[in-house]
Amino acid sequence: LLLLFFLGSTLLISFVTSIRPQIFSLLIIALVLRRLIQPGTPWEIPYILFLTVIGTNIHVYWCIIPILWVLYRIIPELIHREVPSRSAWLTTILLSLCGFLTPYGWRSYELLWEYVNIDPYLRSTIHEFRPSLGLGGYAPALILLSIAVAVRTFRLRYALARASDLGAMLVGLALALKSIKFISLFAIFGIPFLIRPAGIAVRKYAPS
User: Fold this and answer.
1) What number is the average pLDDT over the span 71-81?
2) Taking 90 as the threshold, does the pLDDT of residue 67 lie above it?
């Protein structure tokens, strides 16, 4: 099962494995996600802040890290009707302000806005900005297969227990559907939530 996930994720990430800043940014995001899917610890805040500062000086993907922090450290507390700690809220603010710790300063946010709202002409002519499902190859099939597995094995109790993982997967899915460029984020974000449903599907349809 882990081998299947590895192969599927590798295929999706292969769209952006050329040596450029984006691939290093994906590595940083994967490290942050690996930390966040584990129980919180006091040292994780400086660790994630450090990775985010590095990420801000590499690629605009750094903005994903504050979103992940909210999904894994703020949302679960709210779901359980508890008040998130001051340190959790403060970390959210600090992560969001890391864009100022670059040579561009406040322009980092201007560049981020331009990146999100890219010109429609460029979006239609540059291959990596096109919607994933509108392209050929294996990417659309893998995305649809992931959706089918998640829907077919959906259990409300499991989804509520793994709300952060589900939220991360949905963020990755939304980005992937918007542009093939973001399909690698779906590959990373989908693993924590899909690993169990995929196991159920494999045992049901391909019993040993």
Assistant:
1) 89
2) yes
The first and second tokens of residue 169, run together, are 């997967």
Whether 128 and 180 have beta carbons less than 8 Å apart is answered as yes
Which residues, other chains included, contact 99 with Cβ-Cβ below 8 Å and sequence gap of 6+? Answer: 56, 62, 63, 106, 108, 109, 112
pLDDT mean over 59-81: 92
pLDDT at 88: 93
For the chain, the C-alpha Rg in angstroms (whole number) is 18
3-state SS string for the chain: CHHHHHHHHHHHHHHHCCCCHHHHHHHHHHHHHHHHCCCCCCCHHHHHHHHHHHHHCCCHHHHHHHHHHHHHHHHHHHHCCCCCCHHHHHHHHHHHCHHHCCCCCCHHHHHHHHHHCCCHHHHHHCHHHCCHHHCCCCHHHHHHHHHHHHHHCCCHHHHHHCHHHHHHHHHHHHHHHHCHHHHHHHHHHHHHHHHHHHHHHHHHHCCC
- Calculate the alpha carbon distances from 98 to 88, 101, 170, 171 in Å: 16, 5, 25, 21
Looking at residue 91, its pLDDT comes to 95
Comparing 87 with 80, the larger pLDDT belongs to 87
